[in-house]
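Hi Y.,

Following your request, here is the sequence exactly as I used it, all 122 residues.
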Amino acid sequence: MPRVIGIDIPDKKRLVISLTYVYGIGKKTAYEVISKLALNPDMKAKDLSQEEIAKINALLQSEYTVEGDLRRQVQNNIKRLISINSYRGLRHRLGLPVRGQRTRSNARTRKGKKKTIANKKI
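Below is the corresponding structure, written out as tokens. Let me know if you'd prefer a different format.
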């Protein structure tokens, strides 16, 4: 398995799909990376040479925010929202849906303490 930025990408899948296993890279970004490096998007990841893997690593580290840096950035954003006592920060702190989803009939898995549903027969 080739390692890209410390992540083992699956070698039996197409290169575009394999790159999406890195946190912060979706299909669009994977296609951008492949086109910048003039690689074949349909080739399997196991067919990558060491030079090509090194080029992918260098490009991702220089131009994109991925993996640990991106995770850290997201966590810092959430901590900032909590610290300034914004509405979204309050929702994060309570473990409730942040983006306006309803909580009356859905979101039971994230809504604080366990609540029993009235008149539900097992």
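The first helix runs from residue 15 to 19.

Thanks again,
Q.
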